[in-house]
Amino acid sequence: MENIALIESFSEFKDDKLIDRVTLMSILEDVFRNALKKKYGEDDNFDIIVNPDKGDLEIWRNRVVVADGEVEDSNKEISLSAARKIEPDFEVGEDVSEEVKLKDLGRRAILALRQNLISKIHEHDNTNIYKQFKELEGEIYNAEVHHIRHRAIILLDDEGNEIVLPKDRQIPSDFFRKGENVRGVIESVELKGNKPTIIMSRTAPGFLEKLFEQEIPEVFDGLITIKKVVRVPGEKAKVAVDSYDDRIDPVGACVGMKGSRIHSIVRELGNENIDVINYTNNDQLFITRALSPAKITSIKLDEENKRAEVILRPEEVSKAIGRGGHNIRLAGQLTGFEIDVFREGVEEDVELSEFTDEIEDWVIKEFSKIGLDTAKSVLEQDLEDLVRRTDLEEETIRQVFQVLRDEFEE
């Protein structure tokens, strides 16, 4: 029985999978050696000759001629009378090479061999895909929506590779339909059970940085350097930029005339508000710029503990904190300082952390999330606005108001 289908499939694999000749030869030899080990126990006395271009395969078993009745290992030894059936002039001690036909392996072994070959080819493909995408980590990639699930979107690229965009890596306003193209950065690539898992992200700061590289020539050319990116995906981002060429205005170059250059980036990110800031080693100036659009009256720095006390006029406080506390939180992440906001002219104020005996800790944390850390900063807020911006009930906020007012009335 000649296994024509198996032989023909060698060149078929080579064409379909675009495997180079040397790699295919190595895979084929490995597969056949496994089959020989199963049948004969060992394979080190076999020579395998593979020609994947033509689909030719030869297997030769090498044995030593021993006297009749003295064969101890039938795989490595052959009796004199059996050897002389191959060539009549063989003598004891000589080496005999005999071709092993595929049919000698048996039908079941051949079927298993073919399945093993397919498995090895797929394993090779998966390794190559893993290596390919591992080199693309942190780079922007395009793929098409193939399947929409509750916790993730499954994408396919032009080569049919599967890429996963988890729900928590999507911008909150993202809405994709099947067949639609999606851009993101390759965040991570892992081999799980010999199959590569490729994760894409649209929320990573690196995605915004790579969009700057794509859309702004001076960034791509290295004339402008992005020092740091911080984001609340879909809401707000701050990007610190710098240039070693004094003739270039890095902020102006990134934003463009009337925001023309940054507009496509904002649109890609679901209208995320992007502040582009000139980087500086002067911490005081950097914090001032990071808290834009608020105008700072004065700053007191504690370099050792990386804390900054910022004094602002009352009407500037809400600008510094920003909607949902995003502005002050991102400014802190960008500069590496914990920023405390104080109102100009207010001599007496009390940290909310001082009220833990009367206000539960989780309630204080809710206020802190939106940048309110002191008693007066809470009292200056509108009740309905606080209900909207926090997860607190109206009654809870009224009780907090009363506790704080009592503090200042005493």
From TrEMBL:
Q: Which UniProt keywords apply?
A: Cytoplasm, RNA-binding, Transcription, Transcription antitermination, Transcription regulation, Transcription termination
InterPro entries linked to this entry: KH_dom, KH_dom-like_a/b, KH_NusA_2nd, KH_sf_prok-type, NA-bd_OB-fold, NusA_N_sf, TF_NusA, TF_NusA_bacterial
UniProt superkingdom: Bacteria
Q: Which Gene3D superfamilies match?
A: 3.30.300.20, Nucleic acid-binding proteins (2.40.50.140), NusA, N-terminal domain (3.30.1480.10)
- Report the Pfam families cross-referenced here: KH_NusA_1st, KH_NusA_2nd, NusA_N
Domain K Homology: from-to ranges: 233-306, 307-384
Major localization class: cytoplasm
Localization: Cytoplasm
NCBIfam families given in the database record: NusA
User: What is known about its subunit structure?
Assistant: Monomer. Binds directly to the core enzyme of the DNA-dependent RNA polymerase and to nascent RNA.
Protein function: Participates in both transcription termination and antitermination.
| PANTHER family on file | TRANSCRIPTION TERMINATION FACTOR NUSA, TRANSCRIPTION TERMINATION_ANTITERMINATION PROTEIN NUSA
According to its UniProt record, which protein family does this protein belong to? Answer: Belongs to the NusA family.
Name-wise, this protein is Transcription termination/antitermination protein NusA
Species for this entry:
Autumnicola patrickiae
Corresponding gene?
A: nusA
